UniProtKB/TrEMBL annotation:
<dbReference type="InterPro" id="IPR040338">
    <property type="entry name" value="At1g67623-like"/>
</dbReference>
<feature type="domain" description="At2g35280-like TPR">
    <location>
        <begin position="70"/>
        <end position="161"/>
    </location>
</feature>
<dbReference type="Pfam" id="PF23310">
    <property type="entry name" value="TPR_27"/>
</dbReference>
<protein>
    <submittedName>
        <fullName>F-box protein At2g35280-like</fullName>
    </submittedName>
</protein>
<dbReference type="InterPro" id="IPR057136">
    <property type="entry name" value="At2g35280_TPR_dom"/>
</dbReference>
Length: 213
C-alpha cells in the first residue's frame, strides 16, 4: 500500500474553516472554485459547502439569464436553495420577463433585493413603481443612494439592459398609468434624461425602462 499523501497546512484545517475560505474564493467566480475542487479531496468537500453556493459569483449568467433556460439547472437550484442573491436576480428576470410568471418573478427579484444585490434592488424598485406600488418602488431605489450620486443606479440600469437582451417583453397597461401618475410638473425638463432631481428622478427612470421595452 502506498503511503498516504501528507496534507498541506491549508488542507489540514477543519472543514468548517475550509468552507469559509472557499466561500470567499467563490466571490471571484466559478472557475476559481473549480480549481479548488480539483486540488484535493479535502478542498473538494469544502467546495460543496452551502456558503460557497450562496457567495458564488454568477456575473456571466446575470448578463445572460436566458442561458439558464436549458442549462445550468443544477447550479441554479443549488444557488437558489442557499440564498444566492445573484441567482435570485437571474431567476427573477427569467420568470418575470421570459416566462411571464409575474408572482414567481417578483418573488425572486425581491429576494435578490433583500440580499442587497444592486441590480435586483434597482429592477425590483422600478417594477414596483411601474406596477403602481409607488412608495415601495421609491423605497428600494433610494437604497442605492441616488440623491448623493446616480453612479450606482446608472450602472445598474446599464447592466440590466444587457440582462434583458433577447427577451421579448410584454408591455403592461399599468406601466403607462403609473408613469402618468408620477409625472412631475413642468418645472423639470422632462426630455433631459440625464439631469434628474428629487421631483423627476423616479419618473425619468421609469421612462427609461418603458422606452427599453
Amino acid at each position: 500500500m502506498s503511503p498516504s499523501k501528507e496534507l498541506s497546512p491549508l488542507e489540514s484545517l477543519p472543514q468548517y474553516l475550509l468552507g469559509e475560505i472557499i466561500s470567499r474564493v467563490a466571490k471571484s467566480g466559478r472557475n476559481h472554485v473549480r480549481h479548488c475542487f480539483q486540488v484535493s479531496h479535502e478542498l473538494a468537500i469544502a467546495c460543496k459547502d452551502e456558503r460557497v453556493s450562496k457567495e458564488l459569483n454568477l456575473k456571466q449568467l446575470a448578463m445572460n439569464p436566458l442561458a439558464t433556460v436549458h442549462n445550468y439547472q443544477r447550479l441554479m437550484e443549488k444557488c437558489l436553495q442557499n440564498g444566492n442573491a445573484e441567482a435570485h436576480y437571474i431567476e427573477g428576470v427569467k420568470q418575470y420577463f421570459y416566462h411571464n410568471n409575474t408572482p414567481s418573478g417578483l418573488h425572486h427579484l425581491q429576494a435578490s433585493a433583500e440580499g442587497l444585490y444592486e441590480k435586483g434592488i434597482y429592477l425590483y424598485g422600478i417594477l414596483m413603481l411601474c406596477r403602481g406600488e409607488t412608495d415601495t418602488g421609491k423605497q428600494y431605489l433610494d437604497k442605492l443612494q441616488w440623491v448623493k450620486s446616480t453612479t450606482r443606479s446608472d450602472r445598474c440600469w446599464t447592466n440590466i439592459k444587457l440582462s434583458l437582451q433577447g427577451i421579448h417583453i410584454i408591455m403592461q397597461p399599468s406601466y403607462f398609468q403609473s408613469i402618468r401618475d408620477i409625472k412631475p410638473n413642468k418645472i423639470c425638463t422632462l426630455n433631459d434624461m440625464d439631469t434628474r432631481c428629487k421631483k423627476c428622478y423616479y419618473y425619468k427612470q421609469m421612462r427609461k425602462f418603458v422606452n427599453r421595452i
